[in-house]
Amino acid sequence: MATVWSCEILNGLSFKTCKEQDMVHHPILVNGEWREASFPVSSFKAINPISGKQLPDSFPVSSFLDIDEMLQAEKAGRESLQQVSFTQRSDFLQALCDALKQNAEELCQTAHIETGLNYSPFLVEQEFSIMLQQLDEAAKFCLNRTWRDATIDTRSNVRSIRGPLPGPVVIFGPACNPFSLNSCGGNDFACAIVSGNSIIAKANPALPLTSYKLAKIISQIVSQLELPGFMFQFFFDTTSDLGLRLAAHPMIGAIAFTGSKKAGMLLKESADHAGNLSFIGMSGPNPVVLLPGAVNEQKNQIARQLSDSVRLNEGQTCHKPGIVFLVENKESSTLIRAMVDEFNAASSKPLLSDVTARNLDSQLSHFIRLGARKITRKEFYQPTPFLHPYTILHLDIKTWLQKAAQLQDEAFGPAILFVTLENDTQFAAAVNQLDNLNSLSLYSDISGADDHIYRQIAPLCRQKCARLLDDRLPSPFGPTTAQASGGCFPASNQPGFGFFGMPAAIKRFTAIHCYDNVRQTRLPEDLQIPGSNPHTIRSIDGKYSDQ
């Protein structure tokens, strides 16, 4: 997943310096007030990838004056944030859902214009719907607070529970998920609200107006419900060095980032140096292992699934399969040839930005220099800078085993790499070379001919990924309590936490609060006996109870 979090490294945007006095910027949100940015570093305008034309709205690139004011506002009002009850947070999330539904068409049209992503079904039926479902789930978990892990030892009168972090959650959202992962209303936003935190949201420069409209709705609900103004603050962009300075700032609680490994590693390094908590979800190749029996039985269906997944939003999704392992034979050749013919005949659509197309071209050229062979017909460069042809690369197993470490960076866009094996005994060696992953798909046949290979490599696959799929490809994340996303480094930096799926994802933005010999009347509601919330399960003297 390619995410650009600073205007300085995103092409497809038009910049002007602040010396141009005739420019009108959209305001930022600081402590409940929409105001002009203070001495912005520069400004930018988005470009519609479909038309290639610059969009009219202008957005400021904030200096650290704006960010510091947000941090100071949060620090000064933190005591009032602690007075916001879980019921109030639930009401806020439900009210936000209702308001977003009323503005669904305008929001989805704006996101379509800024990103070029399909209005329907992707933006309306998938992205926007998932955002609403996430907010609805979050509202429910404000009331069912079993996720707080309330633990009570009556004999020693010591109790512990999960509480909010000591500072705001700073959210950096990606471009390819304009709603479900938007810093304004997306998954990280919902989890931060449930867990009792305030938020500083940074727009992705590829969709500034979409984020602005979401932020306006959020701020209206905050105001209507008379919640603290600093509970949600918003700015459009800042420079790379100031973004890293924010990640290392001692007044933040955590940063949440979803996007490219390059940008994620910079943020992680900065946060780690300062000892700050960070949750960095990085992109990966989402490999697919096709055992021989599965190819024999289902080659047409599998080819259709792979093709659809690669072409969905032009491959600009966090779940696109990037590498496929299969044994080279007549059946697998038929599968690959079917996809090659389809890709050669298809007309590509614009990507999020021209830099996305150039980065994909550069990554594929790198793979070719390492020994991969392009087997689709079309040349890399297209008539406009936002286009890139559908591309299939082929690699033999020997080259993979020698150079696997250099072949696993994500090729974000409509491209896929097939690695062909000489026989089924090589699957274990091929999988063993994979980095840790977010997801891995393993296809086997129905008749059982693949069972012996499956038993050998399934444990290896299980060790490599957060999300192991049998006989299907990863699909867009919907809210399910069992969902897991993340994985060990380099898929993410926090394998013990889910980046999706509540309530597990909520726990990212919490700290353990222990109360030793604190009087009953001074304890948080969820640590008092008897409990007043029948929806919450607690551990009392080693036994789980809803009492």
Characterization of the model:
- By secondary structure, the chain is of the alpha/beta class.
- The chain folds into 3 domains: 253 residues, 3-Layer(aba) Sandwich (Aldehyde Dehydrogenase, Chain A, domain 1); 183 residues, Aldehyde Dehydrogenase, Chain A, domain 2 (3-Layer(aba) Sandwich), CATH 3.40.309.10; 28 residues, no CATH class.
- Helix content is 36%, strand content 19%.
- It is built from 14 helices and 23 strands.
- The strands form 5 sheets. The chain has a 7-stranded mixed β-sheet, with helices on both faces. Strands 21-7-6-22-23 form a 5-stranded mixed β-sheet, with no helix packed on it. A 5-stranded parallel β-sheet has the order 10-9-8-12-13, with helices on both faces.
- Helix 2 packs antiparallel against helix 4, helix 3 packs across helix 4 and helix 3 runs antiparallel to helix 6.
- The longest helix is centred in the N-terminal third of the chain and has 25 residues.
- It starts with 12 loop residues before the first strand and ends with a strand.
- The N terminus is likely disordered.
Give a quick rundown of the structure.
The protein is α/β, with parallel strands linked by helices and 547 residues long. Helix content is 36%, strand content 19%.
